[in-house]
Design a protein that fits this description.
The complex is a heterodimer of chains A (366) and B (292). By secondary structure, chain A is an alpha+beta fold. Chain A is built from ten helices and 20 strands. Chain A has helices spanning 42-50, 92-96, 98-102, 107-121, 136-149, 166-182, 194-200, 218-223, 228-233, 266-274; strands at residues 4-13, 16-26, 31-35, 57-62, 65-66, 77-80, 154-158, 186-191, 203-208, 211-216, 240-247, 254-257, 260-263, 279-284, 289-291, 303-313, 318-324, 327-333, 344-349, 355-358. In chain A, a hairpin with a 4-residue loop joins strand 16 (303-313) and strand 17 (318-324). Classes of the chains: A alpha+beta (366), B mainly alpha (292). The interface between A and B is medium-sized, with 34 and 24 residues.
Chain lengths: 366, 292
């Protein structure tokens, strides 16, 4: 096992900067997920760690060894590819044992290790099959098995579940967590799916346009996003981002948004004032906006009145889009809420649960 | 009327609906035309086979009368067996050399960043268009200075070099179709370049290698000028040169023996095609290796 350290790593392809000044440390045995939209630089980062791309600037260490110009075959890493990359002309057994055979492992040891890993992954009956005869889930298990057999110092996984159906993806997420608990090897996992990131990661690395946005534990990323992009990317349904202004009626501080004035604490007011920003963006999670009576649920909390525009029943809950003060706000309600499109609804939220961002820079203020 | 109402209004029937395809009037004409074209190409071959069994064969198409294998006996007596053996040697060695060189060159050109790769590829393409007659005299002079004349092996090298440019282009394109993930997966498992080429890439481009090998073999099999100029040893005479000498013998053309000799000379190539067609019809199959 080993620690992976990227210091000021930049990767350019001609004039295009794919990864810009990335600083990242992955601790020994940690399961880190790099997530972000397409083109954010996550796969390029993984490929640099694997050795398929060399950093244009910066250093990459795995363990204590500088790896910038070390070829992939000498890094002792194992990788699971998005498209499986199983060798089509080899059987499952030969695919699994490829790395061991390259290293001239004795045949008896190869056979026993292949048998052991195949049994663990439930693919014992498939050892003589060719990849073309396998289902997507089976191929993914074989790819995982090939990586596990190597006993590398780190695992790299490039969107390994993206080609599976939703049910199988959910099943494999659990499987991967179980495998990592059994083999706590340093793991760097790349995905565009924030659900995978939230459910599996010890820490999440969120990237956008080649730049690191935030590195934190999933719950911290969700509750305290560093900027508007992080807030909008993590969480489903998406966070409500509402434009607001700080006002000082009668000497007190308040937020003006959604055609409502909301009193704020002096602490929040100080932080906003220190940023010298004129406008703010308020981020409120849909689960923090609750239907209430016209008088409000809790004293001091604002009551917003709006018109229901869209209702999305999801079975266990319902997502409701409400037009409030000219903006659309999404909230979560229990199923069978009895709401109808066009009906009036009253909503309430606690400003202390909200995130406030600088409107111009997008950075978190509080 | 709604869609449901329209469906409900349809008459009930249990008879299967029969769809008759309208025959095109041009179809029979096209069939006859293709038959005529096919016959035009098949007629010389038909003459060849019929003449080979006809002791009194001429230059016109006629049924053998009597049917005899005398021509084949005479063709063997004239050295057909040894000539075919020499052709097998030349074609075989040149195919092995050309395929090996082209596979390795094609791999590097397809996969590695090489300075001036584009210019080099254009140069190779240009080389495929150079006629052998332009190169024969300088090649002969080189052979003289190196004392390589009258050697089947060195003649094979020249035959191989004539096929290498085209084979490089062919194999480079075949290798380019192999998904890079396979090589990357092999590399991260610990495989070096040679191992990747021989254990991963080559097994996946067998049809491409066969195409290249067959083309090289056929070109070398039928080579006339190069063996004629570079190897004057009568014992090394290949089939194509042997047929020429056979035609000139006695100032007459023995059509029957010529036809038999030609049939014998064609047999190895036909067998090669029949054996390799099984591999070639399979095409590329990366099924299961990568998604899609």
């Amino acid at each position: 096992m080993a620690k992976i350290v990227l210091r000021r790593v930049t990767k350019s392809f001609g004039s295009k900067v794919a990864v810009d000044d990335l600083n990242l440390e992955v601790e020994d045995g940690e399961f880190v997920i790099v997530v972000g939209p397409s083109g954010c630089g996550k796969t390029t980062t993984l490929r640099m760690i694997a050795g398929f791309e060399a950093p244009t600037m910066g250093t990459l260490h795995i363990g204590d060894t500088l790896m910038n110009h070390v070829p992939p075959k000498d890094r002792n890493l194992a990788m699971v590819f998005q498209n499986y990359a199983l060798f089509p002309h080899m059987s499952v057994a030969r695919n699994l044992s490829y790395g061991l055979r390259i290293r001239r492992t004795p045949k008896k040891d190869v056979d026993s290790q292949v048998h052991e890993i195949a049994e663990m992954l439930g693919i014992l009956a498939l050892l003589d099959s060719k990849p073309a005869q396998l289902s997507g889930g089976e191929r993914q298990r074989v790819a995982l098995g090939r990586a596990l057999l190597r006993k590398p110092q780190a695992f790299l996984l490039d969107e390994p579940l993206s080609n599976l159906d939703a049910a199988l993806r959910a099943q494999m997420r659990v499987e991967l967590k179980r495998i990592h608990a059994q083999f706590p090897v340093t793991t760097v996992y790349v995905t565009h799916d924030q659900v995978e990131a939230m459910t599996m990661a010890d820490r999440i690395v969120l990237m956008n346009h080649g730049e690191l946005q935030q590195v934190a534990r999933p719950e911290r990323l969700y509750a305290e996003p560093a900027n508007v992009f992080v807030a909008g990317f993590i969480g489903s349904p998406k966070i409500n981002l509402i434009a607001g202004q700080i006002e000082h009626p009668d000497g007190a501080s308040a937020l003006r948004c959604l055609a409502t004035t909301i009193p704020i604490t002096p602490d929040i007011a100080d932080r906003v004032r220190s940023s010298q920003s004129q406008g703010v963006t308020i981020g409120i999670r849909p689960e923090d906006i609750l239907p209430c009576s016209p008088l409000g649920a809790t004293p001091g909390q604002p009551v917003l009145s709006g018109c229901v525009e869209v209702i999305e029943p999801l079975g266990a809950e319902t997502h409701v889009a409400v037009r409030v003060g000219g903006e659309i706000v999404t909230c979560r309600t229990p199923p069978r809420s009895g709401l109808e499109v066009g009906s009036t609804i009253n909503l309430s939220f606690d400003i202390a649960q909200a995130s406030i961002f600088d409107a111009s820079s997008g950075l978190r203020l509080c | 009327m709604s869609a449901d109402q329209a469906v409900a209004a349809l008459p009930e029937t249990t008879d299967p609906v029969v769809v008759r395809r309208r025959r095109s009037a041009a179809r029979p004409v096209l069939n006859v035309l293709m038959l005529v074209i096919g016959l035009v190409f098949l007629l010389p071959l038909l003459w060849l086979i019929l003449a080979s069994f006809n002791p009194r064969a001429g230059d016109s198409l006629a049924l053998p009368h009597p049917f005899s294998i005398l021509n084949y006996h005479l063709a063997f007596h004239a050295g057909a067996g040894a000539a075919i053996g020499n052709s097998l040697y030349l074609a075989g060695v040149s195919t092995v050399i050309a395929t090996a060189v082209s596979t390795m060159a094609g791999f590097m050109l397809a996969r590695r960043r090489i300075r001036f790769k584009g210019a080099f590829l254009v140069l190779i393409l240009f080389l495929t268009g150079i006629p052998v007659t332009l190169l024969l005299i300088p090649t002969y002079q080189i052979f003289v200075s190196l004392a390589w004349l009258n050697s089947r092996f060195y003649t094979s090298i020249v035959l191989a070099s004539m096929s290498v440019p085209f084979s490089i282009w062919l194999l480079k394109n075949f290798i380019g179709q192999v998904p890079r993930e396979f090589e990357e997966a092999a590399a991260i498992e610990g495989a070096g370049e040679i191992s990747i080429l021989f254990r991963i890439v080559i097994p996946l481009i067998i049809p491409g290698i066969l195409v290249s090998a067959i083309l090289t073999f056929i070109n070398s099999w039928g080579a006339f000028l190069i063996p004629l100029v570079l190897d004057a040893n009568p014992a090394d005479t290949p089939g194509a040169v042997g047929i020429y000498q056979f035609m000139s013998a006695n100032g007459q053309v023995q059509f029957g023996q010529l036809a038999a000799y030609s049939v014998l000379f064609s047999v190895p190539v036909i067998i090669l095609y029949l054996i390799s067609s099984r591999w070639l019809s399979g095409g590329f199959s990366f099924a299961g290796g990568v998604k899609g």
